[in-house]
Amino acid sequence: MMQHLDTFRLIEAIARAGSIRKAAEDSNITASALNRRLARFEREFGSQIFERLPRGVRLNPAGELVLQHYRAQRSDLARVKSQVADLSGVRRGHVTIACSQALLPFFLPQQIAAYRNAHPGVTFAVNVRDREQAEAELVSFRSDLALVFEPRVLVDFEVLHAIPQPVCALFTRDHPLADRAELRLRDCLDHPHIAPAHKYGVRGLLDMAAKRVGRTVAPVVETESFELIRYYVMHERAVGFQIPIGLSAEQDTGMVFRPISDRDMPPGNLLLGQMRGRVLSVATSRFADQVALALANMSVA
Amino acid sequence: MMQHLDTFRLIEAIARAGSIRKAAEDSNITASALNRRLARFEREFGSQIFERLPRGVRLNPAGELVLQHYRAQRSDLARVKSQVADLSGVRRGHVTIACSQALLPFFLPQQIAAYRNAHPGVTFAVNVRDREQAEAELVSFRSDLALVFEPRVLVDFEVLHAIPQPVCALFTRDHPLADRAELRLRDCLDHPHIAPAHKYGVRGLLDMAAKRVGRTVAPVVETESFELIRYYVMHERAVGFQIPIGLSAEQDTGMVFRPISDRDMPPGNLLLGQMRGRVLSVATSRFADQVALALANMSVA
DNA sequence: CAATCCGGTGCATTCAATGCACCACTTGGA
DNA sequence: TCCAAGTGGTGCATTGAATGCACCGGATTG
Fold first, then answer.
1. Residue B45 and residue A73: Cβ atoms within 8 Å?
2. Are B250 and B188 members of one domain?
3. Which has fewest Cβ within 10 Å: A84, A140, A167, A239?
4. Nearest CA among B278, B293, B286, B274 for reference residue B122
5. How many domains are there within chain A?
6. From CA A99, how far away is CA A116, in angstroms rounded?
7. CB proximity A40–strand D (7 Å threshold)
8. Chain B residue numbers touching A3 (CB-CB < 8 A)
9. CA of B51 to C1' of C9 (A)
10. pTM of the model as a whole
11. Distance between CA atoms of B191 and B277, rounded to whole angstroms?
12. Nearest residue to D9 (CA, C1')?
């Protein structure tokens, strides 16, 4: 039981370190022992899973398959444990989420707190990932759920729920744009603006919309942090961008935000998803249900 | 590696024997050792998986989940091994099929021989199962593929290919029915007939069709063996029933078979399937492709 | 009430996994 | 050109986890 997944953990360590000796140090065992474990595994498995290089080792295609298999196995064992805990009355479990930054300030804390209020035995892990990384995160079983804005590829991403989210401009209450009845993209671009990096969905939508009207997004500050965007607009009279779920009408009292007219930009999609075909643990799938419900209520509100 | 799946094999033995001591004898170890392995597993897993009864042990719901998990794991490991063998150029693998009796005399031997001719490294296991057992066989990972006539439930049965098969009557060349242009059900029932047991699809279709015309199937011999049916019609001048894939125009020279008119009976379906959502090994999925192709060619012929 | 079968446990034993020291080899820079 | 540093792999002594044996307490069964 333990022994087996332990060997797999060591194999993962070797793959990560790129060398048996380094991995042995990281795992607090001798290189000799680790070398033997690997050799024994390869012998029993029937084929090498690492190519031996002069400066270390590297996973071969067989190794990639093996790694994927054991990750799936470990994840499925966690699901079984969760289901067993559930049927014995103890609401235990662990939920891992990969999400966009927009969910961090308001939505996810609320959701997690609400769920843990009902099921205190369930713990959470939140990994902040951009939309490209999110799917890889699911496929490698490092995360159970993903909640991302405008993910690119969707081959192994099974959508559990989707809501539209228009890109919003945000600025201080005394900004010239604060009084406009309808906010046009060109107005925002005419003012100094701060925009997220290209890898983010908000920026992607901005770039596309700007190109369509013959303009370009030319931010005075470009950043990977939406937190920086939120706070920066309070220091320089600039226009920031974010989706509504990452903003709050009540908080950030000095700021207002308005959706950019859908004549200029179609709303993007915020997707809740899991790895295609995977069976989630009880705790995870109930949390997913709760999140989907919350998203649905939000889009009608 | 070995150790782990070994423990699981022992747990399976306990579940099968219903007692630790019996399972220990079957597995050629002492009851003490087996008891300790189970205790250690339950301790590390975090919950009992057997209920202790006065006369032995029995799997509890948690145990059912654990068993299912390890069966899936073992099967997936076999798939990985098959894929690794495949990418190293060695066409190795093992294919397990649950099938109806009709496939035994002609179709499956041809298909397996043809496949093994191209890939001699692949071995086969053929389990004869009725349509009820076939799906259970897939779900418990005891078989990779199922090829059955008119299976009942289809909840975990993913259909890979389907062809219609009319029920045929078979008799000797000199039987009074041998000259009819169109064969009606009532004609068959008017003669002495030998029919398969109720659990088989052919009998199910016969019963339903007979009921619709106000008749009943009243066999002079009822049997679980289609082989018996095939040979019996040569000894008494009786009418037997079987689907075409279980019969051969060339062989059984003394016999002829004719489809029963579809005015009386709609054709049943012969289904090739796997467990829903499961990823098959390379060898298995290629064999499935070959079988599907052969079935397709057969239905146009 | 005795026989029998069950799961569980203390104790001595054994064998596989480990750590240590060392080898052969490649690489990169003094 | 050569040496230091790093790599994977191996023989040997040691240790600890898994095993087998003997036995216990309890429940069923006749």
1. no
2. yes
3. A140
4. B286
5. 3
6. 18
7. no
8. 3-4
9. 19
10. 0.85
11. 47
12. A35
